[in-house]
Design a protein that fits this description.
The protein is of the alpha/beta class and 390 residues long. It has one domain: TIM Barrel, CATH 3.20.20. 37% of the residues lie in helices and 15% in strands. It is built from 16 helices and 12 strands. The protein has helices at 8-14, 53-60, 68-88, 101-108, 131-139, 162-175, 189-195, 199-207, 220-228, 245-253, 262-268, 275-280, 300-310, 316-322, 325-330, 358-363, and strands spanning 27-30, 32-37, 91-98, 114-121, 148-154, 180-183, 236-239, 257-260, 284-287, 348-351, 371-374, 377-378. The strands form 3 sheets. It has a 4-stranded antiparallel beta sheet. Helix 4 links the parallel strand 3 (91-98) and strand 4 (114-121). The longest helix has 21 residues, at 68-88.
């Protein structure tokens, strides 16, 4: 734990005899927080950008059943790769979405990363009956540990019905759990919700799992989340790539945070994200990578580097906040991580940098962290990290 933050001289006076580690010239930052990732998909690579969002989903979703063993092995491999990437890139805490949380949590609970593990719920049309089973798996706290906290994530408004969303919110409220969802990621969500039309309906036909009992909702995904009551909860909303002025006002009046995933956003070619306006109206915005199926890797600093290029007028400090203090708040970990303050976890990352604005220097180079510490222990970032199985 961090017990004090000050200059070297003052600390040596206050704590005579303390062991000293000199990290050299550079910047010492709080361990980085990736607000939105799917570690279990880290064995994938993005490939060529898809023509349409649903074409990308079709690549990910097998049409024929895959054995549970194959699915579990794929998730285990993904988690091992994902954790090792996070450490190499200076990420010490993650908001991880996991469809296979029964497989990933036992691996992560004794791993090095701090993880909010949002168990993913999908339950729409022919899959409606899976709701309670999925909710129970998500909220199960049996793997909670010093490093892992269970949360719940209804996947998206095109895979969970309004009743299912309400059930997830209620389950989160009852237990005080972190809640996340994918929202307004694609422009296809509004016509799907309103009239069950467009590419997302086509996806359901492709899966052969549609039924006509799904209720329609006019007004788009953000008003849908508002109608569910999710905006009054500290929900993490992944993406929000499509947001009009009225929807922006709804978000500003609520308590939800946004996880903007810059490189994933660029991969799909969405119109410019309104993150700067969101910050101006008081919405908490964090950065995430999303999964290795849409991001080249889990190097969260490269997402900040893209923002540096897109928004050179934003001070470097404000960009780093998106991957530290704001991201910690977005995943409900702000009392433990995200800043260098007495009482918080001793998680930090050191980048070599010099000059008048070292925070900008790091974003204008391709440098990797030279040291990463979690809970006061240096992490071996140069070697392969093995996630131990239970
Ligand atoms: Zn995602």
């Amino acid at each position: 734990m961090i017990i004090a933050v000050s200059t070297s001289d003052e600390l040596q006076r206050a704590y005579p005899g303390a062991e000293i580690t000199d990290a050299g010239d550079g910047v010492l930052l709080p361990g980085l927080v990736n607000a939105h990732v799917h570690l279990e998909l880290s064995a994938l690579t993005p490939g060529e950008p898809p023509g349409r969002f649903v074409d990308w989903i079709k690549r990910l979703v097998p049409r024929s059943p895959v054995s549970a063993d194959v699915v579990a092995e794929f998730a285990r491999r993904g988690v091992a790769t994902g954790v090792s990437q996070c450490l190499r890139f200076g990420v010490t805490s993650v908001g991880d979405i996991s469809r296979q949380c029964g497989v990933t949590r036992p691996l992560l609970k004794r791993g090095p990363l701090r993880v909010v593990s949002y168990g993913e719920v999908q339950a729409m049309a022919n899959r409606r009956g899976l709701l309670e089973e999925r909710v129970a798996a998500a909220v199960d706290g049996k793997d909670n540990s010093d490093r892992l906290r269970a949360g719940i994530s209804p996947h998206a408004p095109y895979s969970v019905e309004m009743g299912g969303y309400r059930r997830c919110l209620e389950a989160a409220r009852e237990r005080g759990l972190p809640l996340a969802t994918h929202l307004a990621e694609t422009a296809d969500e509004a016509p799907f919700l309103a009239k069950h039309e467009g590419p997302l309906r086509e996806l359901w036909e492709y899966l052969g799992a549609w039924d006509d009992a799904v209720a329609a909702f006019a007004g788009g995904p953000i008003r849908f989340a508002h109608a569910v009551g999710m905006l009054e909860y500290p929900t993490l909303l992944a993406h929000v790539n499509y947001c009009d002025d009225h929807e922006m006002a709804l978000l500003a009046a609520g308590r939800a945070s946004i996880a903007y995933c810059p490189r994933t956003h660029a991969y799909f070619g969405h119109p410019p994200h309104r993150w700067r306006e969101m910050l101006r109206v008081g919405i908490n915005v964090a950065v995430g990578t999303d999964s290795c199926a849409s991001s080249p890797d889990l190097n969260l600093v490269d997402d900040l580097r893209l923002l540096r290029q897109l928004a050179p007028e934003i001070p470097a400090l404000a960009l780093w906040e998106l991957a530290t203090v704001r991201a910690a708040r977005a995943i409900g970990m702000e009392t433990r991580v995200g800043t260098l303050e007495a009482g918080k976890a001793a998680d930090f990352v050191v980048f070599s940098a010099s000059g008048n604005d070292p925070l900008a220097t790091v974003l204008e180079s391709e440098t990797l962290p030279k040291q990463v510490w979690i809970a006061g222990e240096p992490v071996q970032i140069s070697c392969q990290i093995t996630v131990h199985d239970s």
